[in-house]
Write a structure and sequence with these properties.
single chain, Neutral Protease, domain 2, Phosphorylase Kinase, domain 1, 5-stranded mixed beta sheet, alpha+beta, 7-stranded antiparallel beta sheet, binds zinc ion, 2 domains
Length: 400
């Protein structure tokens, strides 16, 4: 077997099954943080053209023609098919994507925002997820994983291919922006996955399948929901646009991408041209603090933070009316400083969030020590209200 080794820059989007999370369901999911161009070392053994390959190729040829007709876009070159094994995927694609420093920082942030317990290990969870790839696409190639992808189950297999083929079309016809903030990246991913999911749903319905309900946010813990956001809400967003003006309207979204999860959750905001407000801090922190992160987390993230301790309806309502935010996270040795300024559309929306957040502090048994100050697990938490924004400040030492 010949092995071809090359370093390439590709648009790689993975389709995974998260059986462990949802017991039996198949759900599309993406491991890479953002399907932008990333450099990977592609080491793909040449696929033998056996019965499995032929059956998959046969189905693929059918789905290609179907997707072209449904989506109204044509492939500009032949689509290649590569068959992989689960073992190969874990070895070559599993660890490669994880930026461990970034994952550790993400974990610190979830802990600082009361979303996971101190013992939580995000790296371990992310590594587990990487072994669940069903299929992937990069450039003009479709990768399928033998253990998970069964071409004889034509309906489900065809749907997976329709999803992946849409990603190939996106790479051919649209320029996908990077996004500067977590919030914006999530919105862009929701467009990409929502488009692919809608084509996949069309395929399913037209081939006699029944539309099963999509995964629900309530079924997942807050951290998993953040990860799955593009699959939970992308399709509804794209569907909203398609109902307004067909695929033409959907194609236009790539020229003006939504900037926030708020626009994905409330598509009418996107359509009317609403944009998040720019939020800034009025003061600088002392010079000896080293910045680890500056980001905008957005409405959906806030909702998950609240949902970790409050009922779903409360979290949803309290996070609505978000108009912008900015979070900064600093280190000085073992010390950490977090400040997060969240802006609201009006006073009522601000009050609603404030009430919910104070309720959250009560739920975790934070001790109120003065008017705007709480102490929880050696952390000092401050809340300050200014005009239409709330600033949360936290000081603590990191635990190892
Ligand atoms: Zn996808």
């Amino acid at each position: 077997m010949r092995t071809e080794k090359s370093r390439i820059t590709v648009l790689l989007v993975l389709f995974t099954v998260l059986a462990g999370f949802i017991g039996g369901y198949l759900i599309a999911s993406m491991i890479v943080a953002h399907p932008s161009t990333i450099t990977i070392v592609k080491t793909v053994a040449e696929t033998p053209k056996d019965h499995y390959w032929n059956a998959t190729k046969n189905l693929l040829d059918h789905v290609i023609k179907w997707v072209e007709k449904d989506r109204g876009l044509r492939f500009d070159q032949n689509v290649k098919l590569v068959v992989l094994t689960k073992e190969w995927v874990i070895k070559h694609w599993g660890l490669g994507y994880l930026n461990l420093t970034e994952v550790e920082l993400e974990e610190e942030l979830y802990k600082a925002l009361f979303m996971v317990p101190e013992s939580y290990n995000l790296t371990k969870i992310k590594l587990g997820q990487s072994g669940c790839t069903v299929a992937a696409s990069a450039d003009n190639t479709i990768y399928v994983v033998k253990e998970y992808f069964d071409p004889s189950k034509r309906l489900q297999a065809g749907r997976v291919l329709a999803h992946e083929l849409t990603h190939i079309l996106q790479g051919v016809y649209f320029k996908i922006p990077e996004g500067r903030f977590h919030d914006e990246k999530q919105a862009i991913r929701a467009v990409i996955e929502g488009d692919a999911d809608l084509v996949a749903l069309d395929y399913l319905l037209e081939h006699g399948g029944k539309a099963e309900s999509q995964g629900h946010e309530e079924d997942f813990n807050p951290v998993t929901s953040i990860w799955l956001f593009p699959y939970l809400y992308g399709r509804e967003f794209i569907q909203y646009l398609r109902e307004l003006g067909g695929w033409k309207k959907v194609n236009e979204v790539y020229l003006r991408m939504p900037k926030s999860t708020a626009e994905i959750l409330h598509p009418e905001k996107y359509v009317e041209g609403w944009e998040p407000r720019k939020v800034e801090f009025m003061t600088k922190v002392e010079k000896d603090w080293r910045i680890l992160l500056r980001d905008r987390l957005g409405e959906f993230f806030i909702r998950q933070m609240l949902r970790a301790h409050l009922p779903m309806e409360v979290a949803v309502k309290a996070a609505e009316g978000w108009s912008g935010d900015l979070i900064e996270y600093y280190e000085k040795g073992e010390e950490r400083l977090l400040r997060w300024k969240i802006a609201w559309e009006n006073r009522e929306e601000l009050e609603e969030f404030l009430t919910a957040f104070i309720q959250l502090l009560k739920e975790i048994n934070a001790e109120k020590v003065s008017e705007n100050k709480w102490v929880w697990d050696d952390r000092i938490i401050n809340l300050r209200v200014e005009d239409l924004s709330i600033t949360l400040t936290e000081n603590f030492r990191i635990k190892h």
